[in-house]
Write a structure and sequence with these properties.
alpha+beta, 9-stranded antiparallel beta sheet
Length: 892
């Protein structure tokens, strides 16, 4: 529940005005006033979502028009008193729903993840006394104190600060901590630029501060993000839309054909009502691919397992296939495209420019000048810079138990410490006698160190403009350094300076007033480096026709530099970085035009990211959004595929996402897209294999009714064929490897039908061929004196074995199956054929199967003839494939 006492734009008002507007003072609220506000406003907590009941989640898996037809057929069987048939039909529907329910597992805990990020307690001043209370007990107007390592418990307006720095990457995307202070900022400042505000769930990385609570619960910034998550509707995936459209079309066709058949049977052949009803039900059951939903679910589940082996954890089943249709990947910068570990890329001294290789906090890489290796021994200017910049800092980088180098301290200080390790410098040789810690007012830190020869040196590192102002340098030299600073900043690099001065031998301490007449040692240009594998992945995405867009809360210059280095923008695009202010002022139509041309968006808020994703979707794009911060969660949920980072990602982001990358590697997204395309290809093969089964059965029943014949297949026998082929043969196609050109094709259209025009002939002609041999087997058996149960068994065996033969045709849609590859490369195919033959033998010979399905032992010929007809089907359909691929090829 939110708070009713509000001050508009507290970041832009003086601290005194905010206190007055909230009815508070620096001594805090009284206990009685705090209690009254707690009753009025409610706790500082996010509301608990109410989960859907299990029965409702299970029932959703019956919401398929094809299942409705199947259930209607079962209801008619029940009305006729045919309870065995009713039980089998109902069982098929329940099994299908159970598979979907188990595999889908829609336990989205995004809101719970955000609630877990809230601080559990707070230090608050009430009745003039500092005390600890639960964070939930905070109210607007409370005075709260924060310190290093603590989590901010509510949105606070800073009223006092001492070297206060706060880690806000999860909210703003900033890769380094932000300095905070009591001075107001501009009214239109973005969240990341509000230096006078502390936001709930951010972490204090250094210093201390006091602030007044201005928002709690849902009114806090993190609460607004939760509200946006609640307002984002789950989108249907391209596959779900294709299945829904295909199911509706098929259902209408089945209904129309059933009516026509009923009229023909009644008026043309005077069939008894029960016989006619059974025949119409047989047609409906034969035409419904009831195994299709389960086939899709199981195929996607197999893809989930395959992707998990490559570090992509799928939380929502439909996202697997949707990846294959993605046309745009929107990625956060910090920790996603970049490593999230600040690294010195370049050192500038008066003698020259030194390039520094390697990334992250591991001291791997080297230092070069003009392409040649460079070290402190050969380059005194480099040695001075490394020593002076390393002496005042407190950060420590060291390998963890797993061998991964980690940082304790500020990221920029960690970059300088790593530079010292690469240069072979040991700070232990420079014992520190006194220090001035970094503070936001002076923007530098300093130390007094004793050199091995006893000389005492003042070392200063920080904002270069502040250091130059304390240097004894000539005007032209200052101008030269300012040009170097501008050049490095223009590349999106964070620039730090280092300066020094010799102290008196007996100097015991230092003060800010002592820092004059310094000598400027040089500049360090620092960046959050791109992941090398992400650069390759972006290039692959471009070759696959997938656009990559960077959406970050970081500064425009930094975003532009990283995007150019990673290949997201090039040439004339380099100046097309769009800021959050431009997004804010753009109308919906203008924003759609903006996202169509721009590839980099900087200084964005959560609302901006959400609007950008929606604008892309309005333009027909299928969007995958990646990120790791709380500020990414609403956009991740809005996108067709939300991808969260598993290591550095917040819990809220992981729970809002469809896929979590266990290795935080952008390159894994590229693999996931490739896997999504492979899965869609295999689903397409499975559909083109499965539908001729239903088509052949429907044609058999249709012919029987139109010509007044005995039904060659009963409704239960039709269900048997549908299930056994769906579970064995069509499922084996899910294991087919990817086609060689899979990542050089453009994305398939999101609105493309499940069955296209080129597929019609590839379904109709196999249906005719399989129906023809099935009818031939039934009438050959009847003509040779076999009873109806035996003749129907011949028909069922012929139908299943013809499907087995057709499986080898369907493995290669664009190429001939008359080659060695049709027999190898997918062992599951042979396992499936073996299981099919065993299952069919059980259908033929097991007494309980004979009783349930009215089957009978067909004799030796009952196997020889179906096998021969299966070979005929394979040969005929190979010829059909060759003709179709020549005159009516499938789209690329």
């Amino acid at each position: 529940m939110g708070t009713s006492t509000m001050v508009e734009r507290p970041h832009a008002l003086a601290a005194e005005a905010v206190l007055a507007g909230l009815g508070s003072t620096p001594d805090g609220l009284s206990g009685a006033e705090a209690a009254a506000r707690a009753v009025r406003d409610g706790p500082n907590a996010l509301p608990e979502p109410r989960p859907d009941p299990v029965i409702l989640r299970f029932g959703r898996h019956f919401a398929d028009i094809l299942i409705y037809i199947l259930l209607a057929a079962g209801a008619l069987k029940a009305a006729l008193g045919e309870w065995v048939d009713f039980g089998v039909i109902l069982g098929v529907a329940v099994v299908n729903a159970a598979v979907g329910f188990i595999q889908e597992g829609r336990a989205t805990r995004a809101l719970a993840g955000i609630r877990a990020m809230l601080s559990s307690d707070a230090e608050v001043r009430r009745d003039g006394v500092w005390t600890h209370v639960e964070a939930q007990a905070l109210v607007v107007g409370d005075i709260v104190r924060v310190g290093p390592g603590g989590r901010v418990p509510a949105d606070l307006r800073v009223i006092e600060a001492s070297n206060l720095r706060v880690e806000e990457a999860a909210l703003t995307g900033e890769s380094v901590p932000s300095s905070k202070g009591p001075d107001p900022v501009a009214p239109d400042a973005a969240v990341g630029d509000r230096a006078s505000m502390l936001y709930s769930s951010s972490i204090v990385s250094g210093g201390s501060g006091v602030g007044v609570v201005v928002a709690t619960g849902q009114r806090a910034e993190i609460g607004r993000i939760q509200a946006m998550l609640s307002d984002v509707d789950d989108l249907s995936t391209p596959l779900s839309r294709q299945l829904a459209r295909f199911g509706t079309q098929l259902a209408l066709m089945i209904a129309a054909m059933a009516v026509v058949m009923a009229v023909i049977g009644k008026l043309g052949h005077r069939m008894p009502f029960n016989d006619l009803t059974s025949a119409v039900i047989a047609f409906a059951v034969s035409a419904v691919p009831e195994g299709l939903p389960a086939l899709v679910t199981i195929t996607l589940a197999l893809g989930v397992r395959q992707m998990a082996r490559r570090q992509a954890i799928v939380r929502r089943l439909g996202a697997v296939e949707t990846l294959g249709a993605v046309t745009r990947i929107c990625s956060d910068k910090t920790g996603t495209l970049t490593s999230g570990e600040m690294t010195v890329r370049r050192v500038v001294t008066r003698e020259g420019v030194y390039e520094v290789s390697g990334s992250g906090y591991a001291p791997t890489g080297g230092i070069t000048r003009d392409g040649a290796p460079a070290g402190p021994d050969d380059h005194p200017d480099l040695a001075v810079f490394v020593e002076v910049s390393g002496a005042p800092i407190n950060a420590v980088v060291a390998p963890s138990d797993g061998g991964v180098w980690t940082l304790v301290g500020e990221p920029t200080e960690g970059a300088l410490r790593c530079l010292g390790l690469k240069a072979g410098w040991d700070d232990a040789s420079y014992p520190r006698l006194a220090a001035l810690p970094f503070d936001s007012a002076h923007k530098y830190s300093a130390s007094l160190n004793e050199l091995p020869d006893g000389t005492r040196l003042v070392c200063v590192v920080g904002a270069p403009d502040r250091l130059l102002g304390r240097c004894a340098a000539a005007g032209d030299e200052i101008a030269w350094w300012e040009a170097q600073i501008e050049a490095q900043s223009g590349r999106g690099l964070r620039v730090l300076g280092a300066a020094f001065a010799t102290a008196r031998p007996d100097e015991p301490t230092i003060d800010h007033d002592d820092l004059t007449g310094l000598s400027f040692a040089g500049l360090a240009a620092i960046a959050d480096p791109p992941r090398p594998e992400a650069v390759t992945a972006i290039a692959t995405c471009h070759s696959a026709g997938i656009g990559v867009t960077m959406i970050t809360g970081d500064h425009a210059g930094t975003a532009q530099a990283v995007a150019a280095e990673m290949g997201i923008i090039a040439g004339e695009e380099a100046s097309s970085v769009v800021t959050g202010a431009a997004i804010e002022s753009a109308s919906e139509s203008a924003l759609r035009r903006l996202v169509a041309r721009a590839r980099v968006f900087a200084r964005t808020s959560p609302e901006h990211k959400l609007r950008l994703v929606r604008a892309l979707q309005a333009g027909g794009e299928v969007v995958a959004m990646t990120g790791d911060g709380v500020n990414d969660a609403p956009a991740l949920k809005q996108a067709e595929v939300g991808v969260a980072m598993g290591i550095k990602g917040t819990e809220a982001t992981k729970q809002a996402a469809d896929i979590v990358l266990a290795d935080d590697n952008f390159a894994t997204i590229e693999y996931a897209v490739e896997e999504g395309r492979r899965i869609h290809d295999n689903l397409h093969k499975s559909v083109l294999f499965l539908l001729p089964t239903n088509g052949a059965q429907a044609l058999v029943v249709l012919a029987a009714i139109v010509f007044g014949w005995t039904l060659p297949l009963s409704p239960l026998q039709i269900l048997w064929v549908n299930l056994v082929t769906a579970v064995t043969l069509s499922l084996s196609l899910a294991y087919e490897p990817a086609e060689p050109d899979i990542m050089t094709r453009p994305p398939r259209p999101a609105d493309a039908p499940l069955v296209g025009r080129a597929d019609v002939a590839r379904i109709a002609l196999p249906s005719l061929a399989i129906a023809g041999v099935t009818l031939a087997a039934f009438w050959w058996a009847r003509a040779h004196g076999f009873a109806v149960p035996q003749a129907q068994t011949w028909a069922v065996t012929t139908l299943t074995l013809a499907q087995g033969a057709y499986l080898f045709n369907a493995r290669f849609l664009r190429e001939s199956s008359l080659r060695r590859e049709a027999l190898v490369g997918n062992r599951v195919v042979w396992v499936s054929v073996g299981v099919l033959v065993l299952a069919q033998a059980g259908f033929v010979y097991l007494p309980f199967m004979q009783a349930a399905f009215s089957s009978a032992a067909p004799g030796v010929l009952g196997w020889v003839v179906p096998v021969g007809l299966g070979v005929v089907v394979f040969a005929v359909l190979e010829g059909v494939k060759a003709v179709l691929n020549r005159w009516w090829p499938l789209p690329a």
